[in-house]
Amino acid sequence: MMINLPVLVLNQSYEPLAVCRARRAVVLIFEGKAEMLEDGLGHIHTISRTVPLPSVIRLAKMIKRPHRQRKMTRFEIFNRDKYTCQYCGERTRQLTLDHVIPRYRGGQHTWENVVSACVTCNRRKAGRTPREANMKLVREPAPPGNSHFYIIPHHYLSKRDEWRKYLPSNIYQ
Asked: What is the tally of structural domains in the chain?
């Protein structure tokens, strides 16, 4: 249904906050809590009028959002590394986690020591350091930035070209 289409919600400062459903966005607009910046794919028909479906809305008041610390999960590490093996550079969904300095040698399970690795590279490196295995890291591991753009599901990005001007270009890569 059209009322379930995704709508990008921007803060008063045009910072992306979330994705909501068109039905919720229309309610926010009618209550004066948001304004429509881009209309979507169609209209909602009410008893008295026809309302365009929003695709992007901006809240009327600034919402202060606390900066959350991201949990270190497999998904977040793969996302940080853009589903790329950090040793050979291959983009794949068949990834494993690798400790740059192996845990049995004192390596910690931290953002700075865990990377995505394809199965072949992980086996080749085994329980050694990259230097001992004669392998180089594509990029040094680091904690992800404080960007909140991970809240926007990537499968929406290919369908919503009108969102591009409100989102940083690096999330489309």
From this structure: 2
Q: What is the residue whose two structure tokens read 């990377």? A: 115
| Distance from C-alpha of 49 to C-alpha of 122, rounded to nearest angstrom | 61
In DSSP notation, 114-157 reads: EEEEEHHHHHHHTTS-TTTTT---SS------S--GGGS-HHHH
Q: Are 112 and 143 in contact (CB under 8 A)?
A: yes
How confident is the model over 58-70, as pLDDT tens digits? Answer: 999 998 876 667 7
pTM of the model: 0.56
Q: pLDDT per residue over 128-147, tens digit each?
A: 999 999 999 999 999 987 65
pLDDT in tens, 87-123: 999 999 899 999 999 999 999 999 999 999 999 999 9
Nearest Cα neighbor of 87 from 98, 76, 102, 103 is: 98
For Cα atoms 64, 159, 38, give the angle at the middle one, nearest 5 degrees.
55
Distances (CA, A) of 94 to 63, 114, 120: 39, 16, 10
Inside any domain, residue 26:
yes
- The answer to whether residues 88 and 137 belong to one domain is yes
Residue 39 in this model has a pLDDT that exceeds 90: no
Q: Which domain holds residue 33?
A: 2-66
How far apart are alpha carbons 105 and 37 in whole angstroms? 54
